[in-house]
Amino acid sequence: MGNINFDFTGKSVIVTGAARGIGQALARHFANANATVFMVDFDKDELDKAAREVGAIGIPADVSSTGDVERVVSTVIAETGRVDVLVNNAGILRDKVLWKLTDDDWDQVLNVHAGGTFRFTRACVPHFRKQEFGRVVNITSYTGLHGNRGQANYATAKAGIIGFTKTAAKELAAFGVTVNAISPNAATRMTASIPEEKVAELTGPISRFADPSEMADAIAFLASEEAGYITGVVLPVDGGISI
């Protein structure tokens, strides 16, 4: 438990990709800070279990579907009358070297990562503008800037999220909305299969993957009122691998 505690009382928070990993840790962090938390994930069974554990509201949805995204935001507004914080965390992997990537491998990864980030942000903007307040935090990756073998689709999607973050930050600042991103390096289901001998080269000077809760601390800061003068930033929370 850290020494800094943010209070999100009265705030409505949407976290995508929330059934496990960083998303679940983040949802728990916001719930402990008194927010009304809406957890979104494609995996209904895992989502229902996680939402019960966290004390949040689970809404199964496909972030690549405009209809699903608009349904989620409408549900949040119907329940609380507002949406204050959006964290675009949903992601999938379809890793292959580029000459083996299929159109589906490409399209699915871009539609979930970049497409989901766009669709959810777009759906929240009218409510942010009405409130003259909003926080968007997107999850990008070191791979989006540096590439990685077997991840042309993932790297492209994450690079796109960086460009989207900076553009949305410029467009929405006049309405009291900040848009930032983090570049994480946390222990998740995606890192569990990495051989031990490879961990050092993937974790930077600190030589370990972060616990997902360490990502939640950084995201909560960017989502707080205290961070109101920070926008368009990509914050590396990566143990120094980007040095």
Compile the SSE list and pairings:
Blueprint: E1 12-16, H1 21-32, E2 36-41, H2 44-54, E3 57-60, H3 66-80, E4 85-88, H4 103-131, E5 134-139, H5 142-146, H6 152-172, E6 177-184, H7 196-203, H8 212-223, E7 234-237
Parallel strand pairs: 1-2, 1-4, 2-3, 4-5, 5-6, 6-7
Helix pairs in contact: 1-8, 3-4, 4-6
In order across it, which strands form the biggest sheet?
Answer: 3-2-1-4-5-6-7
Low-confidence stretches: none
Mean pLDDT: 92
Number of helices: 8
**Could you estimate the helical fraction of the residues in percent?**
40-55%
Number of E strands: 7
Q: How do the helices and strands follow one another from N- to C-terminus?
A: EHEHEHEHEHHEHHE
Rounded to the nearest angstrom, the radius of gyration is: 17 Å
The coarse silhouette is globular
Structural class per helix/strand content?
alpha/beta
Percent in strands = 15-25%
Catalytic activity: a (3R)-hydroxyacyl-[ACP] + NADP(+) = a 3-oxoacyl-[ACP] + NADPH + H(+)
InterPro entries: KR_dom (IPR057326), NAD(P)-bd_dom_sf (IPR036291), Sc_DH/Rdtase_CS (IPR020904), SDR (IPR050259), SDR_fam (IPR002347)
GO molecular function, one term: oxidoreductase activity
Family: Belongs to the short-chain dehydrogenases/reductases (SDR) family.
Description:
- By secondary structure, the chain is of the alpha/beta class.
- It has helices at residues 21-32, 44-54, 66-80, 103-131, 142-146, 152-172, 196-203, 212-223, and strands at 12-16, 36-41, 57-60, 85-88, 134-139, 177-184, 234-237.
- Strands 3-2-1-4-5-6-7 form a seven-stranded parallel beta sheet, sandwiched between helices.
- Strand 2 (36-41), helix 2 (44-54) and strand 3 form a beta-alpha-beta unit.
- Pfam families: adh_short_C2 (PF13561).
- Keywords: Cell wall, Oxidoreductase, Secreted.
- Belongs to the short-chain dehydrogenases/reductases (SDR) family.
